[in-house]
């Protein structure tokens, strides 16, 4: 705590060898405003003084005083801040992971947002997804945040639901990983993943996914998309798997599965102490006993303890420590208070020492990327790659004369793609690292297979298996032979007051004589877009009305001064406008959208 500031009134001067003092011998000090002097001589016994001055750090602590000490203190209702000044209690900062945040500042804790108010955190209470991470040389971080390392050359169950005594009964999803040696010291790295979902088996390996269907279930319970360097599988049951197409796997689960799962990722019951639960549902202390119990095949040999790779390969230790020091450096300083770096650093050093058969840079980069992703999970985005440290060459995907692809440390987790044309995803995931295209308006879809932005996708299904092209009068349908299109008259014209208009054609433009103009254009799927805007301006229309064509004619009355869509209100109040809108019998209400 910074000591209270004061200045003495005593002035001493030396005259002919004698000390001459002006003022009182023991005057009370004058404290800098707003502090006041507290004199213990003028109070009753047992009263505390400056020794119990409250600060933002000690507001909730009890003060035990053995003697009253006089000094400068803050007036009642104010407390000391970290700079030695006096502030109201409600202006004290909040503390999170030893870092201070001022009132009004926000942080992300899992999927919730917390705001600092009255020196306390007020957080949303959304149910967050649990995360299990597996990366590099057999490093695990369970759903309940228990960290351990396990190396075994076999297939192992990472997670499954409905865990019976046998550990396999009645599960609806199951994730299995196959470990393959990645060094001469006995270390292994996850290389292949199998995901079982109802009657589907998804096999992830060699940087792609293949699907095996068993049974007659036509409803596909999953979606696959590529985001940055990750392949993401989302399921309707609440399981999400993110794979970097190398050795890192991140599994997310809905909170509905808490306490209902088992495997190397633990039981997800909020208690990391009992995460070492074996297939037979017994809790053990030994990581080898726990890991070996989750072998898929009993014919695989049991895993044994592995020697420290840096002791086995001492010539690699200094290089590994130097490279991995980036985790403890200022590059990741913003994340250190949010995610403890020590264990990630040690895992990095171990992996860099272990990969002695080639790919050592891959092992190092994967370990650092795992820490960067853990930072992204808590809302801290770190741009750590450089041209000399694990570079990512996104320009490879740029075609000649184009510059759409760029590296993003925390890219969008959901975008318009040919596999996901709506641009909507089941969950909002934290930013994922990798190369991302900035698709222009004339090529809004990202084609995952061609790795480029396209105007239209080859083929994709919506609810009825058909799509309308927004720039052509064609109706397209997905077939086994690809996208089949034919001219569709209904999708490409509008009828207004008995007259026929083509797609994109101007139907009318007029004015009301008071400075407001109106226009209507034929849009896709027989809709008419009506625009109201101030004449003589180049601004966007004040409002847009889209209505379907035609069998019923209704009158819609509106005032452009009060458009009841998003609470937006224009500044001027033109006269009442009556607009004639056409619509089908199945749509009794007029759809209106507002652009600004």
Helix content: under 10%
What is the molecular shape? Answer: globular
Count structural domains. Answer: 5
Q: Estimate the mean pLDDT confidence.
A: 76
Radius of gyration: 34 Å
Largest beta-sheet details: 7 strands, antiparallel
Low-pLDDT stretches are: 5-9, 460-471, 538-596
Description of the molecule:
9% of the residues lie in helices and 35% in strands. It folds into five domains: 6-91, no CATH class; 94-123, no CATH class; 130-292, no CATH class; 309-377, no CATH class; 494-593, no CATH class. With 596 residues, the chain is mostly beta strands. The model is unreliable at 5-9, 460-471 and 538-596 (pLDDT under 50). It has a seven-stranded antiparallel sheet with strand order 16-15-14-25-24-23-22, covered by helices on one side. A six-stranded antiparallel sheet has the order 21-20-19-18-17-26, with no helix packed on it. It has a five-stranded antiparallel sheet with strand order 36-37-38-39-42, with no helix packed on it. The chain contains six helices and 42 strands. Strand 37 and strand 38 (527-534) form a beta hairpin.
What's the topology here?
Elements: E1 6-7, E2 11-15, E3 18-22, E4 30-31, E5 36-38, E6 71-73, E7 78-80, E8 86-88, E9 94-96, E10 99-101, E11 106-109, E12 112-117, E13 120-123, E14 130-135, E15 139-141, E16 147-149, E17 155-161, E18 173-181, E19 188-197, E20 200-205, E21 208-213, E22 222-227, E23 230-235, E24 239-243, E25 249-253, E26 261-262, H1 287-292, H2 309-312, H3 317-324, H4 333-336, H5 342-354, H6 360-377, E27 405-411, E28 432-437, E29 445-447, E30 452-454, E31 466-468, E32 474-479, E33 482-487, E34 493-496, E35 499-502, E36 506-511, E37 516-523, E38 527-534, E39 543-548, E40 552-558, E41 577-583, E42 591-593
Antiparallel strand pairs: 1-4, 2-3, 5-6, 7-8, 9-10, 11-12, 12-13, 14-15, 14-25, 15-16, 17-18, 17-26, 18-19, 19-20, 20-21, 22-23, 23-24, 24-25, 27-28, 29-30, 31-32, 32-33, 34-35, 36-37, 37-38, 38-39, 39-42, 40-41
Helix pairs in contact: 3-5, 5-6
């Amino acid at each position: 705590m910074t000591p209270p500031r004061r200045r003495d009134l005593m002035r001493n001067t030396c005259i002919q060898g004698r000390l001459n003092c002006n003022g009182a011998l023991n005057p009370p000090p004058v404290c800098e405003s707003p502090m006041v002097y507290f004199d213990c001589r003028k109070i009753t016994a047992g009263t505390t003084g400056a020794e119990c001055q409250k600060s933002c750090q000690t507001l909730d602590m009890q003060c035990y005083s053995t003697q009253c000490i006089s000094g400068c203190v803050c007036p009642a209702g104010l407390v000391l801040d970290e700079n030695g000044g006096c502030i109201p209690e409600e202006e004290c900062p909040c503390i999170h992971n030893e870092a201070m945040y001022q009132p009004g500042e926000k942080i992300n804790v899992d999927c919730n947002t917390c705001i600092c108010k009255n020196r306390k955190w007020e957080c949303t209470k959304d149910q967050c997804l649990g995360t299990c991470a597996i990366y590099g040389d057999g490093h695990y971080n369970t759903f309940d945040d228990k960290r351990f390392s396990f190396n075994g050359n076999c297939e192992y169950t990472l997670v499954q639901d409905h865990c019976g005594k046998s550990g396999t009964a009645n599960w609806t999803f199951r994730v299995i990983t196959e470990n393959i040696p990645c060094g001469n010291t006995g270390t292994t790295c996850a290389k292949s993943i199998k995901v079982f979902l109802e009657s589907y088996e998804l096999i992830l390996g060699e940087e792609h996914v293949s699907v095996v269907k068993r049974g007659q279930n036509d409803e596909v319970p999953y979606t696959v998309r590529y985001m940055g360097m990750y392949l993401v599988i989302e399921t309707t049951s609440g399981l999400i798997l993110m794979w970097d197409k190398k050795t890192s796997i991140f599994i997310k689960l809905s909170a509905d599965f808490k306490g209902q799962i088992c495997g190397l990722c633990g039981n997800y019951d909020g208690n990391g102490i009992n995460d070492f639960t074996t297939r037979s549902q017994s809790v053990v202390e030994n990581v080898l006993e726990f890991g070996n119990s989750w072998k898929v095949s009993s014919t695989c040999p049991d895993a044994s303890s592995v020697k420290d790779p840096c002791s086995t390969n001492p010539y690699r230790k200094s290089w590994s420590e130097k490279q991995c020091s980036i985790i403890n450096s200022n590059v990741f300083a913003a994340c250190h208070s949010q995610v403890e770096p020590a264990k990630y650093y040690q895992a990095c050093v171990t992996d860099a020492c272990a990969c002695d058969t080639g790919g050592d840079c891959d092992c190092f980069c994967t370990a650092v990327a795992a820490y960067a992703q853990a930072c992204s999970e808590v809302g801290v985005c770190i741009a750590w790659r450089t041209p000399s440290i694990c570079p990512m060459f996104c320009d490879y995907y740029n075609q000649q004369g184009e510059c759409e692809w760029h590296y993003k440390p925390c890219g969008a987790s959901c975008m318009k793609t040919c596999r996901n044309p709506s641009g909507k995803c089941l969950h909002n995931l934290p930013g994922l690292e990798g190369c991302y295209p900035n698709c222009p308006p004339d090529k809004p879809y990202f084609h995952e297979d061609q790795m480029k932005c396209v105007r239209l996708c080859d083929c994709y299904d919506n609810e009825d298996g058909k799509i309308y092209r927004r720039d052509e009068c064609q109706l397209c349908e997905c077939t086994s032979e690809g996208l089949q299109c034919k001219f569709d008259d209904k999708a490409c014209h509008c009828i207004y007051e008995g007259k026929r208009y083509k797609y994109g054609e101007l139907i009318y433009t007029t004015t009301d004589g008071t400075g407001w103009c109106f226009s209507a254009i034929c849009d896709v799927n027989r809709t008419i877009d009506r625009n109201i805007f101030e004449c003589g301006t180049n601004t966007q229309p004040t409002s847009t009305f889209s209505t379907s064509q035609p069998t019923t004619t209704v009158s819609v009355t509106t005032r452009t001064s009060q458009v009841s869509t998003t609470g937006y209100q224009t500044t001027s109040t033109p006269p009442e406008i009556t607009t004639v809108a056409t619509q089908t019998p199945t749509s009794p209400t007029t759809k209106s959208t507002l652009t600004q």
